[in-house]
């Protein structure tokens, strides 16, 4: 029996410099699967133990109530946690991927739909990885 997948603090994008690089740099790419958009960037890094780092953003402009924003973030986090192996297995040695999931919808969505969309985005990113 395998250990349960976890979403640890080391897997989160917290560095302001990394966030600016992800959104401001010309190296990032975007994919959309409504109600989510994924902005991702592939980099060469030897110094990092985590091959994938994730940022989840649910703007107040889209979901006005904090409970809805928190639930949406929880849904995306859980979907990513359960399906991250799809992407991690495809990443070559010495490469790393930073991903930002951004909520696009004006209303909450069912968990099954979010899970399906996150899986779709991860599979599409995995196909586009440059070796």
3D architecture notes:
It is built from four helices and four strands, in the order αβββααβα. By secondary structure, it is of the alpha+beta class. It has one domain (9-127): 2-Layer Sandwich (Ribosomal Protein S5, domain 2), CATH 3.30.230. A four-stranded mixed sheet has the order 1-2-4-3, with helices on both faces. Helix 2 crosses helix 4 (111-127). The chain is globular and about 40 Å long. The N and C termini lie far apart (31 Å). The mean pLDDT is 91.
Number of strands: 4
Query: Alpha-carbon distance between the termini?
Result: 31 Å
Number of helices: 4
The amount of helix comes to 25-40%
Run of helices and strands: HEEEHHEH
Number of domains: 1
CATH architecture: 2-Layer Sandwich
**Any idea of the CATH class?**
Alpha Beta
* Class by alpha and beta content: alpha+beta
The residue ranges in which pLDDT falls below 50 over 5 or more consecutive positions are: none
Question: Nearest-angstrom radius of gyration?
Answer: 14 Å
Strand arrangement, major sheet? 1-2-4-3
What kind of sheet is the major sheet? 4 strands, mixed
Taken from the alpha-carbon principal axes, the silhouette is: globular
How much of the residues is beta strand, in percent?
A: 15-25%
What is the CATH third-level topology name? Ribosomal Protein S5, domain 2
The oligomeric state of the chains shown is single chain
Mean of residue pLDDT values:
91
Organism: Prevotella communis
Subunit structure: Consists of a catalytic RNA component (M1 or rnpB) and a protein subunit.
GO cellular component, one term: ribonuclease P complex
Catalytic activity: Endonucleolytic cleavage of RNA, removing 5'-extranucleotides from tRNA precursor
């Amino acid at each position: 029996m395998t250990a349960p997948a976890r979403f640890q603090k080391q897997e989160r994008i917290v560095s302001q410099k990394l966030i600016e690089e992800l959104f401001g740099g010309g190296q990032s790419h975007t994919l959309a699967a409504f109600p989510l958009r994924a902005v991702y960037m592939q980099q060469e890094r030897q110094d990092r133990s985590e091959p994938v780092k994730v940022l989840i953003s649910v703007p107040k402009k889209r979901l006005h109530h904090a409970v809805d924003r928190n639930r949406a973030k929880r849904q995306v986090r859980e979907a990513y946690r359960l399906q991250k192996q799809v992407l991690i297995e495809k990443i070559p040695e010495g490469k790393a991927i930073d991903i930002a999931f951004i909520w696009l919808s004006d209303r909450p969505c069912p968990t099954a739909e979010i899970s399906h969309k996150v899986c779709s985005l991860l599979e599409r990113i995995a196909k586009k990885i440059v070796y």
